């Protein structure tokens, strides 16, 4: 027996021993540490709360990892005593990238000029109240859920049409984003792949109006346009107005009259996991989401816009966000003052 083979035999023995040890630990897993147990309990409760199930144990584990990292982030932000808080809402098992690719859908391609039906912005002479909430005036429908379809633009535009229709006729009718997803599909708007609100207004003007949500219900995926239902008009508009950009005073004057559509940057993790309070960012200025501003006010001296989102009632404050108003950056927090508009109903 030479030295080499003796070393090899010792190594073999070591390998066998390690394997035996592996088998032992596999057979009787070590108890998870206290932190893991608490986390796992919390995760299981969260899964139940949100009715989440996954296809495999692997995905369960992967989602658990993402959930834990989101929780750490939530604790980190909430510890900073900011004007808003985050929470482990239904998006807490998604990475921020997944969230962005699933729930955002405001897309403007290159330079686009509004059509001639556009009216010019003219506030006129009227008193602008220090706060207003169109929900209290009965002009806002319930919170909707776009699901995993990038149709935010349709919800944003229709929210504004629902409101002006209620203000002018007294009837609050929930309108059909599915009709826009199916029928307003072309060069500018792309159903579940994104679109812009002003093009949705233009569609409604050409189509003579839009059907109700009841007649043309939401499916959350691209379908063929049903032209028969699309002719059952539940509300119509005569034009729309682009609000001057970088001017939150102009926005306020408009919201004093009616809810408005705004484009924002909703891609931040803070936005994904927002719970309550006046949201001051972080967020960028790359407009990628369409929402509805249904009012404004002030909390302890801090101005905010009341934002109606289309991510269900589980996100934010029952589906709503208070977004900071009066930022020193003229583009507004999350770019809220960069592109906003509202429909006109002249009869
Ligand atoms: C948290 O912020 C509020 C208002 O911004 C302030 O009044 C309060 O003292 C702060 N609390 C802590 C613990 O920093
Ligand atoms: C912003 O809009 C208001 C209301 O329309 C207007 O009076 C004001 O001059 C505008 N400010 C700027 C900087 O354009």
TrEMBL record:
Residues 128-344 form the Peptidase C1A papain C-terminal domain. InterPro entries: Papain-like_cys_pep_sf, Pept_asp_AS, Pept_cys_AS, Pept_his_AS, Peptidase_C1A, Peptidase_C1A_C, Peptidase_C1A_papain-like, Prot_inhib_I29. It holds the Pfam family Peptidase_C1. One of its GO terms (biological process) is proteolysis. The keyword Signal applies. Keywords: Disulfide bond, Hydrolase, Protease, Signal, Thiol protease. GO terms for molecular function: cysteine-type peptidase activity. Residues 43-99 form the Cathepsin propeptide inhibitor domain. Residues 1-27 form the signal peptide. It comes from the Eukaryota. Belongs to the peptidase C1 family. This is KDEL-tailed cysteine endopeptidase. It comes from Salvia splendens (Scarlet sage).
